[in-house]
Amino acid sequence: MTKFAERESLGHIRGAAALTNGTIRSPFTQLRELLDGITPGHARPIELTIGEPREAMPDFIAAKIAEAAASFGKYPPIKGSDELRAAIAAWIGRRFAVHDIDPATEILALNGSREGLTLACIPAVARKRSVENPAIVMCNPYYSAYIAGALGCGAEAVFLNATSETGFLPDLDALAADTALLARAAALFIGSPSNPQGAVATPAYIGKALVLARRHDLMLFFDECYSEIYTDAAPVGALTVAASTPERFRNLVVFNSLSKRSNLPGMRSGFCAGDPTFLSAYGEIRNMCAPQVPGPIQHASAAAWADEAHVEAARAVYRHKFADADSILSGHFGYQRPAGGFCLWLDMSHVGGGAKATVTLWKSFGVKVIPGAFLAQPGQDGRNPGDAYVRVALVQPADVVKEALERIVQGSA
Fold first, then answer.
1. In whole angstroms, how far apart are CA 355 and each of 15, 361, 406?
2. pLDDT for 260-297, tens place per residue?
3. pTM for the model
């Protein structure tokens, strides 16, 4: 057993080399290898792997980009234009009832939240200068930007399994008991709604995470990129909970983007907001090495954050898709409609687990999904929480999604 494999079995991975030596690989690289050479078993293959929304983007975006086309001729402000940060602040006020956020010090524009989530690990680890072996703790399954950020800045990635037993969010009570880990933790990544399970953190859960972050002086990075995709109640935001505490946003940064909310994954436009002291240091790092959001994109992004009509139109389409999922998948795969996001987390243990089901669905039924194990690592108990599952992204048109779900039931009966 290699050193890295041994550490994986304990729910820890350390060293930037893990990003290049095959220890950590993109889930989509793994999927290509799994299905290499296999011909889809249907004349009309259906792709449901990538979380890339296919709903209509706002119809005003192209015009807004054209309005500001001249700004392609100058370097854009790295922190975001005053127009963009004001639009984000206004949206936070409307959506999360936080009306006094300071766009000058508590908001930074990002070239998509993926970039922001990765680079935020640098100042988080820098805050722990006296710690010899800093750790970055993350929900498991995780988004690849979390682990890339942790390992890229020399921290140890520690995985907290988020399973059905824990409500598909990390067990914060178990984490609180691990004082040795918390003493060297630089940051904790939590997604709400979680990807891929779609679990939503309650205000009490967020409050507990904030207490842990402040007690042990680590950064709580709250990934809310799926916050606007829901079919019932709007997920509560971490800023809302933090704003009601005496410490306000201390030790908290939230991340969001237009990719899912506005069906604009190609815009590469997002933001982070929260702790102004942290964002000041983070802003200086980004000023040295991060990509700026182009000026015309910033102008169009401000218009997108100011408009809700296109967001509600997309939510209506997702409601239709989830209504079909409720009907087709009821009684199968442990299905329950997720509280947020547009992914399904389906238990395939009865057919040999997620990897085997993925091959069968592609080979025999022409539906491409992704094994849950490719989105996670073995946790601290040695178990990979995704082994039994597949993730299904409901990003195709509703009629295509309906047909795919019917094939999945047929292929996994």
1. 27, 10, 19
2. 999 999 999 999 999 999 999 999 999 999 999 999 99
3. 0.95
